[in-house]
Amino acid sequence: MDSIKEKWNDILETVRKDLDISEVRYKNWLEPFFVYDYKDNILTLAVDNEGRNDSFLNYIRKNYLLSIKVAVTEVTGKECSDIELILVDKNEKVEPPKHQTFSRNSNDRKYTFETFVVGSNNRLAYSACLAVAEAPGEIYNPLFLYGGVGLGKTHLMRSIENYILENYPEKKVLYITSESFTNELIEAIRNGNNTAMTKFRDKYRNIDVLLIDDIQFIIGKESTQEEFFHTFNALHQDKKQIILSSDKPPKDFETLEDRLKSRFEMGLMADIGAPDYETRVAILRKKEELDHYSFDDDVINYIATNVKSNIRELEGALNKLIAYSKLEKTPITLDLAERELQNLIFPNRPIEITPEFIIGIVAEHFHISVSEISSKKRSNEVAYPRQIAMYLCREMTSAPLKSIGALLGKKDHTTIIYGIDKIGEKIKSDEKTREVIEILKKKITPN
Ligand SMILES: Nc1ncnc2c1ncn2[C@@H]1O[C@H](COP(=O)(O)OP(=O)(O)OP(=O)(O)O)[C@@H](O)[C@H]1O
């Protein structure tokens, strides 16, 4: 349940994008829900009963349930076979159900060196992590991993943790995000007594391996930086292993104190880049193997070709298809992938092609503003793109001429027809116009 709870906002955001829900509807229908329980693949969502009743819940069941189920799996990888919706009294404090167990941390078996696919983008980082896991404190201290979002830093850190837990059970290893580190420190400071601070220091200075994820978040937080500096020195002096991760290398942090910067840089810095096509396919195949699923080559090829820069999204795409196919009892085909992954692959494209969307693309293509294209200006630099927009709106949408005209500077019916015909003629006689139309159509429907 922890990971569903933690990622609830991402799940809702995925549903919002998937169904193209307006801000107002989203705030009214989805945002008020929170995660109440998750057990035996059944998720219970709760909402306070102020002004809501069973009809409210029924509306959600009818319109959003399938999409929420799919998004849960897409974002967290957890199966969600059903969702229960409950109303809770807004004046009562909602207690989580008793069966819930909060693990020490949410590290699960998924993050190991065996499940990590090695490619040219991460080979150095992988080898360094493995070396550190085998001989903590002896080489590369600290080990500083850096790279963009969703490229495997946490996976490698947790693999080190798991490896040490399994092979050196006597060693004390601690994985923590820099956010939790900061929160614990704030808590200790707030308690205002020496015991709390001593406890905090004992915890962090008496371990053999300290892994801090997303260290960039301590930058700018003075007391956290200060405390971390001393923790670092104490551990390093005792030859205890320190592993840090961040979204960029220390030299790129302008406001990071020099004394910390130099410490971060004194061991080994290993970067993780975006995976190439072959590595993306290998990651998808690995996931397929772990999930005991089998995908056709064309589906794998489609995902690997289109989802390029973030492995979390690559996995999310597979999770989504698996969830969808299970819930709807339908096979995973290329058609399904093309349909269901549209929003992930083309996040900025509206589901429906609207005249507004076309006008925006045309204006951008001709380097003029939307207000210019919709103005009364008659110069050729504006009139030609405007006529192109008229033509494309007519051809690619079912919008009535009247509304196309309204969007393009309150033009009447005859002006619109004239513009459409003019471009129609030009397409026959002028190669340049033909080309422009072709390019724009591709921009409007990239697949
Ligand atoms: N090389 C890889 N082989 C297999 N799975 C991978 C690989 N790299 C990343 N993943 C998977 O991609 C997902 C995202 O990776 P991870 O959470 O480690 O990224 P991150 O770099 O820590 O991202 P963030 O910057 O958001 O913290 C995880 O589920 C992870 O298991």
Describe this structure in words.
The chain has about 450 residues and is α/β, with parallel strands linked by helices. It folds into 4 domains: about 1-90, 2-Layer Sandwich (GMP Synthetase, Chain A, domain 3), CATH 3.30.300; about 125-270, P-loop containing nucleotide triphosphate hydrolases (Rossmann fold, 3-Layer(aba) Sandwich), CATH 3.40.50; about 275-345, Helicase, Ruva Protein, domain 3; about 355-445, Chromosomal Replication Initiator Protein Dnaa, Chain: A, CATH 1.10.1750.10. Helix content is about 55%, strand content about 10%. It is built from 21 helices and 8 strands. The chain has helices at about 1-5, 10-20, 25-30, 55-75, 125-135, 155-165, 180-190, 195-205, 220-235, 260-265, 275-290, 295-305, 310-330, 335-340, 340-345, 355-365, 370-375, 380-395, 400-405, 415-430, 430-445; strands at about 35-40, 40-50, 80-90, 145, 175, 210-215, 240-245, 270. The strands form 2 sheets. A 5-stranded parallel sheet has the order 5-6-7-4-8, sandwiched between helices. Helix 2 (about 10-20) packs across helix 4. Residues about 100-105 have low confidence and may be disordered. Adenosine-5'-triphosphate binds near residues 147, 149, 150 and 247. Adenosine-5'-triphosphate binds near residues 117, 153 and 154. This is Chromosomal replication initiator protein DnaA. It is found in: Cytoplasm.
